[in-house]
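Lesson 9: reading folded outputs for more than one chain in a single document. The general rule is that every protein is listed as its sequence immediately followed by its structure tokens, and records are never interleaved. Here is the first one.
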Amino acid sequence: MINTKILFRSLILLLFFVAKTNAQEVLTLEDAVKIALENNYEIKIASNNLLINKTNVTTGNAGMLPKATATIVDNNAIQNLSQTRTDGTVNTLNNAKSNSLNYGVGLDWTIFDGFKMFAKLEQLKELQKLSEAQLKLTIITKISDVHAAYFDLVQQQQQLVALDSTIVISNQRLTLAQNRFSIGKASKLEVLNAQVDLNTDRVTVLRQKELYANTKILLNQILARDAKTNFIVVDAIIVDSQLLLPELTALAEKQNPQLESQIINKRVSELQLKQIKATRYPTVKVNSGYNFAESQSSLGFTTQSSARGLNYGFSASMNLFDGFTQNRNEKIAKIQIENSQMAVNQQNQTLNSELATSYQTYLTNLELIALEEKNAAIAKQNLNITLDKFRIGTITTLEFRTAQLNYVNAKVRYSNAQFQAKLSEIALKELAGSLSF
């Protein structure tokens, strides 16, 4: 009878909760990820950095294309002139005007620089790949944050349901205590204890609701939308229990963005050494141009002249001695390559260690899910038996309260075990670079 009443009230409470939340947005994990990819500021900044590096990958930026320059120079003068010729004749002119005009187009093209330009182009491409890896890292990190915050809300939502059910039970207990007191079968102390426990449960629910609301704000912040946006999450935590460490390790070696970035940095250092070595070779340039020149003078043997035409040629230069700067630069570049290789090895070691520890935590959490699920079922069965005994007055209120708290705590621990296992799964997939976008 009492079980039926409690079940009925719990059902009413659940239906009320569902009806209340129907008006709110149901935010799925996929929708949350999509919103984060569209709105998150860090992802937008990383995308713009990638766009910058894509724009830089051009043959012109690598120095492969010629440079054409148009010039124009116009000079004018007003002077008081005096000229003495060889025969002694003196010519003078005040406010004499003169002007010269030069304009044309010039072309300069480096046709050989020790293959430095080719190494530069390859380096620009590697820098683009580095930005792509950094964007991938930013995206994976943010998607991991979305997953963690989302499933945190799921487990808190589940805990709220468990706490709401215990409010129903505590209310029922208070009603029974009042009825028994009214007919003289219980003391006032039993009623007061029931009231205190009910108030305690209400405080716990309020604290849980506060935490739930704050976590909503955090998720809205990650999604870069209004912090006051109201929504509910799908009430399910499904843990992938089929992850295998060898497969995760193989994926991480290929896809982990941090390891990928270190490998690209090593390649960038190698191409930098190529560019430095290129200065040991001669540099050959060709040049050409078409120019027009015109000048006028109020005094002199030539009062007006003009010229136009094509000019062309080439130049070559080679460093013969620069105070051993070349050798020093090459040594430094080689050391940087060594450092880059050590960074790759270090990142690889760190990655394997994190995978191993995270996988062990993952296995432990899977076992905890099974254990806490059994505990929740046992606690539920124990509560039902305790409710029956409490109804007929064969157990004390302390025993009833203990059974009630054991049930709530078991439900909370089961929900938390699922959440922790999901966090372990997310961490492993994040390290492997396989976290779904």
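And here is the second record, again sequence then tokens.
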Amino acid sequence: MKIVGTNLTTNVTNSIYFSACEAQVKSLIVPMGKVAASNIRTGNTQAHNFNLNVYCKGLRPTQPAPVKIYFQGATTSDGLLKFNDAGQSHVASGAAIELTNGKGTRLPFTPSQALNLDWQQSQPDAEVYHFAGQARYVPSGGEVKAGKADAVVSYVLVYN
């Protein structure tokens, strides 16, 4: 019997950086306050800041891997959020909630336009990323009428 030796090698590539990414706060409420319809008509409304820290646990990359975010909700275009129960008599009309990032760009509502989160720091068990945004009432077309003006938006984290 003749034994022939072979020199086989296996190259394993791992492109998974994190086992899970999640926000530190599960639900974030941005108090918008009461705003006069005349201020909405003229675009003279105050922006309200909100922040989101995201912790990505798992494998430690040699440099921070990209983590992106986009949003889902009732919207007519990126960054303009419709009010809950829009069209009902008790709900405000002619206005929307404009959502922007810290640079004033309207937030994306499609995965292809997801924004990069800012890497902040490494912790012993996680990489920390940060998102800063603003919300404010803006005119959306038609007559601005008073009423309930609440809205809900969800965020989606993209990482791998």
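What the second record shows: The first strand starts at residue 20 and ends at 23.
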